[in-house]
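Lab meeting minutes (informal)
Scribe: AK
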Amino acid sequence: MAEYKLGEIETIFADIIWDNEPVTSRRLTELAEERLNWKRTTTYTILKRLCDRELFRNKDGKVTKTYEPDVLNQIEGVSGNTWDAVQSGMRAVVTSNSTYSSLGNITMSGKTGTAQQSTTHPDHGLFVGYAPSDDPEVAFAIRIKNGYESLYPSEIGRDLMRYYYGETSRDELITGHASAAGSSSTHGD
């Protein structure tokens, strides 16, 4: 997909889609009329432009963001027992730590970690994970350069999944102010 810079109005329109996806094209025309005072034809013209640039997909009257995985390589020769042990361990990281207690019904697996650059710099914090644990549809990796520990990226991963699965709103997460990061009492790398 080629890089495309959205204009101001296209950004507002894209935000409407991102905030409501999946959204029916009919509902999208209503939202665009409410927020942008657009006629139906204007909405469909701009939607077609953004779909042609592969930012969104309009299939069977449902508008969604375009997600296309890129498989770079595959691991071969690892036994099923080994995969089971890794997945069980990643699930245990989440189920045994109070950082993830606000996930509700979301089953997430993950692994924390740190990487030391030097003795004069704080460690880099890392959290990788996927959800749902039994049939993954989303995976992520979060790294905070010089983040000291893995708790902060773990909280970001937790919040990403809460947002992705509709357990919290964008407005609850993006407030413009620093959050009380690191409020969990149990963590480790």
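Next up, CB showed the second protein from the same session:
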Amino acid sequence: MFDKNGDVVFETDEKGRMLLDALGEPVVKTKDVMRRVERVHVTKATRDAVIFEDVDTGLSRYPIAWGNWERQKNQYHGRALVTGLVPNQIFINTMFAMAMRHLQLMGFPKTVYNADLIGNWSNEVGQAIGVRGLQPGQSISQVAYNLQPADMSNQILTMIDRAVAYTKDCMGATDAQLGNVKPDRLHEPERLQWLQLNSAGADAYVKPGILRSTTMLTSATGAYGKAVAEHSFAMLLMLQKKLNLTEKEFMQGIKRLVFRMLPIREPAAIRRSFR
């Protein structure tokens, strides 16, 4: 421990004599900074005032905090914010995986050939395929033919895109953006509800085709008024007092004074003094 003057405090007995340890050194007085309690105490305070302090809650263990989310019938804690979006994500993942599997299996045509006329079929590039027993007038198309795979419906990809868009709408994605985002890099401006700019001007964002008519656009008009006014007023005072000219004359006066103080030398010596 330390006293109010910052000096170390040592242990003493009942008569005020300093206690020594086994090595004969004075024992430094210590203070218990932790105390064992059997119940949970709570204190509530603000920055400038204490509302209540060291109140015994009567609990022997700390309570577990929970958060109530979206209300749902027969559920005390409610439903998490993303619980309703889980089926959408499962659908998107499943459909996208099926589309990828379809491309793997059906993306390339299948070749059907007459095994009586072609002994061995080869898919190597530039490899010749021999045909035996072709009858006169028989078309080569009757020897081998490529079966075109069935096309995947475009509705699958369209439905995936719509599911992603609807899921983002339900999540409130890109509802608002803060900062001077480049107009050509606004992420999905059709879903943007509010854009707050850091600058006072908004000319680049009011052009047709940049934002929807229903999107709220706000700027920092008035935030820089005081700073700009102070700067303008300081410039007026500088011009009124001709401080810019005074600075030039001051520097020229210093140069003339230095030349007067220098001894008479050759021009080359003077140039070397100012190097």
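CB comment: The chain has a mean pLDDT of 76.
No objections, moving on.
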